[in-house]
Amino acid sequence: MKKTSKTVVFFGNERLATGVTTQAPTLTGLLEQNYTVAALVINQDATTSRKKEPLKVVEVASSHGVPILSPAKPTDIIEQLASYQADIGVLVAYGKIIPQAIIDLFPHGIINIHPSSLPKHRGSTPIESTILAGETETGVSCMQLAKQMDTGPVFDYTPMALHGDETKQQLADRLLALGSERLLAVLPSILDGSLKAVPQTGDASYDALITKQDGQLDWSKSATQLSREIKAYAGWPGSRTKLGTKEVLVLDAHVVQDSPATPGTVHMDKHTLRIACAEDWLEIVSLKPEGKQKMPIQAFLAGNRHLITSEY
Predict the structure, then answer these.
(1) Which of 69, 181, 223, 264 is packed most tightly, with the most Cβ within 10 A?
(2) How would you write the chain as a 3-class SS string?
């Protein structure tokens, strides 16, 4: 196939939440549909993961000969970006605010995949916040990037029903797959001017940033809320507690209804461990002790049951 006459600059690493991985379907799709991708621009602070694994977008760009730029701030490369004379920018999880001077370089602006039903869940943590809130529906917005965070008009919105048991990685994968599919579908109409963006309507909400301290399990919360936290904080910051003398990350757990007990009370046998919460009990399924590999709770109890007291 011939290259399209339309040239794109791609911004971001396609990791829709901290601690998740991606196969970079948006950048891959643009290349497969023969857009001319003039450059990949990635946030200098996120050129590798916390485990120092190379970004998938870098791998994809390198394999197609796409120049890779990682400026300290986008304006550092404004002249280089201008030299590409690109028609449009596409942004997926860049991690920094793009100045208006950069947006104005592109005749059609910059299009952003945002994993929420805007104006709800503006900000950098919409996936985690959706899980924490126990919502039954979310969606993907393909929006025109604006100077103020997540305030631009929307070209396309597609809802997505939730099962309620999605982990952060699972939800990120589903939303990115949907978002890349929808962006690639509407991009020709954006470029030829036949699709117009419409302003966001309704009450806006802004999600709070997540900190390492949020990962400390608090038994004075309900088991349902802690179960959501374990899913939302998977990868980072993780959900931490202490069992006996061992600091552990709880990787999987489920809610068990049982007689009420003082929050922090432990019930266990050779195969199960559950802890009382403000409402219901949380039964731990798998965990990762500090410095160890992931293991099922049965394996942990086999070597540590004698160290665990009846209350925390």
Answers:
(1) 223
(2) CCCCCCEEEEECCCCCCCCCCCCCHHHHHHHHCCCEEEEEECCHHHCECCCCCECHHHHHHHHCCCCEECCCCHHHHHHHHHHHCCCEEEECCCCCCCCHHHHCCCCCCEEEEECCCCCCCECCCHHHHHHHCCCCEEEEEEEECCCCCCCCCEEEEEEEECCCCCCHHHHHHHHHHHHHHHHHHHHHHHHCCCCCCECCCCCCCECCCCCHHHHECCCCCCHHHHHHHHHHCCCCCCCEEEECCEEEEEEEEEEECCCCCCCCEEEECCCCEEEECCCCEEEEEEEEECCCCCEEHHHHHHHHHHHCCCEC
